[in-house]
Structures are given as C-alpha cells and as structure tokens.
Design brief:
Structural class: alpha+beta
Shape: globular
Number of domains: 1
Radius of gyration: 22 Å
Order of helices and strands: HHEEHEEHEEHEEEHEEHE
Largest sheet: 6 strands, mixed, barrel
Distance between the termini: 40 Å
Strand order of the largest sheet: 3-4-9-6-8-7
C-alpha cells in the first residue's frame, strides 16, 4: 500500500507525461467551479431576492445531480413522482410546488393565438403567497385528479391587454391547446412567475398535463421523465445547507425504489 507522498509523486509524473491532458483538466475544473458559482448567484439574485412573493429568501429550487435513465426536459428538472415523494415525505420544507413552462394555443371568439403558459401544482400560489386580483387562484383541491381540473388562471397583464380587466372574463370557457377550460381567476398584479426568462399568460393545473401535452409525451407518472421544476419553502430557521443534508437520505431511498438513477440532491 503506497503512502500519500508516493501517490502525489506518481500523480505528478503522470501529469508531466501528459501536459495537454493536465491543462484541459485544470481548465475544465476552473470552468466548472466558475459556472456553478455564476448559476447560484443568478438564481439567488433573481429568484430569491426579487420575487414579489411572501418571504422570497425562504424559497429554494431543487435539482438532482448524477446518473439518470430516461428523458430530461428543461433545466433543473425532476420527474413528477419524485416531486410528490419529496413533497409528501420531507422534513425540511413548510411547503413545495412544481411548475413547467410550455406554449399554449389560446382560442376564444373565433380567434386563435399562441401564448406563453405554465403547468403548476395546486399548491403553487399558496406556497408562494400569491393571491388573486379577480376571482381566485388555484388551491390544492384543484390538483387532485389527473384530467379532472380543466381550469385556468390568467396573469394580470394578459387579463388587462386581452380583456380590458373586465370581470366578465372570470368564469368564461376558453380553449387551450384544443381543450376546453374554465377561467377561475387572475393572479395578482406584478406577479410574473418564478422564471425571469418567461412570463406565463395562463396557468393550468399540472394534473391536466395529458390534455395540455397530448401524444406520446405525456409522462406525468413516468419516474424516468424529468420535466418539472420543484421549489421548496424552507421551514423557519432552516438553512439551505441543513435542508440539503436533511434531504439526502430521502432522495437516495427514492432513487433506490424508483429506478430514476443515482446522485445527490441540491438546493439552489
């Protein structure tokens, strides 16, 4: 068995024989560290500090690192079953929600246009602490049965630009991606979502994924299809590092039972 000095000397001899490999390795490591720092800073600044929601500093975006079997759609995505497992079994969050951006074909009064949309879990608005400017927003009761909640919540800006802020727009049936849904409310003014790059004009419960994304790519129950971004609200006094450490045993037990791959769970 070699000693540490011997191991170091061996590593140095190996690297001097392959200087190009050494430079590439060092550069890759530096870029990786820099990229991770930039991503965290961007997420922390825009997603945590600038969201017009209740106590934004308590929100974290979950992401899993490591081997993965199956499809992956979007950044920092996990499967819906993994999200529900963590939501129901964790001890570090006071609440969780998930979301997924997608384009929606919006039809009403004989006209059709493509708008920005978002599938959200029923606890999306309650966990964020976002209320309604008119009507109501979703609650957990709006996301209990797959295909059983044909509802929509419009953004305040879309309500103003397309319907002039008319109260009669609430309760109206519209067509989204060819499926009829009922508009139940308008989200509060100034709320654009959790992703600075998009501003969804209409939100639909994630339980309606089959109807909003018809065809072979349904995958709401598929543990190997990662599409949903999952957010958690830290319990009072809980730090990100404590939450990350507390989630690892649960995360590994989910991976062991569900065949989703292997890795570690991080909170940004």
């Amino acid at each position: 068995m070699g000693t540490l000095p011997q191991d170091i000397r061996y590593a140095l001899r190996t690297l001097t024989k392959s200087p190009v490999f050494c430079l590439v390795a060092v550069a890759s490591l530096a870029l990786g560290i820099g990229a991770n720092g930039a991503i965290f800073s961007f997420t922390n600044q825009l997603l945590l500090k600038m969201l017009p929601v209740k106590d934004p500093q308590e929100l974290v975006l979950l992401t899993s690192r490591g081997s993965h079997y199956g499809s992956n759609t979007g950044s920092n995505a996990m499967s819906y079953p993994m999200y529900t497992d963590i939501r129901d079994r964790n001890q570090v969050f006071s609440g969780m929600f998930c979301r997924y951006s997608l384009p929606l074909s919006f039809s009403t009064a004989g006209s059709t246009e493509l708008i920005s949309g978002e599938l959200v879990s029923g606890n999306y608005f309650p966990v964020l602490g976002v209320g309604a400017a008119a009507g109501r927003v979703f609650s957990t009761s709006d996301d209990l049965y797959q295909g059983g909640h044909p509802l929509a919540v419009r953004s305040y800006e879309f309500w103003q630009s397309h319907f002039g802020g008319e109260p009669s727009a609430i309760g109206r049936k519209i067509m989204l991606n060819g499926d009829p849904v009922t508009v139940v409310g308008v989200s509060q003014k100034g709320f654009f979502g959790t992703d600075p790059s998009v501003s969804p004009q209409s939100r639909v419960p994630v339980s309606m994924k089959r109807e909003m994304t018809p065809g072979p790519w349904y995958s709401l129950n598929d543990r190997r299809s990662r599409f949903a971004q999952a957010f958690g609200r830290l319990r009072p006094g809980m730090t990100q590092q404590q939450a990350k450490a507390g989630l690892q045993p649960l995360f590994h037990s989910i991976l062991g039972n569900g065949g989703e791959g292997e890795g570690v769970l991080a909170c940004q």
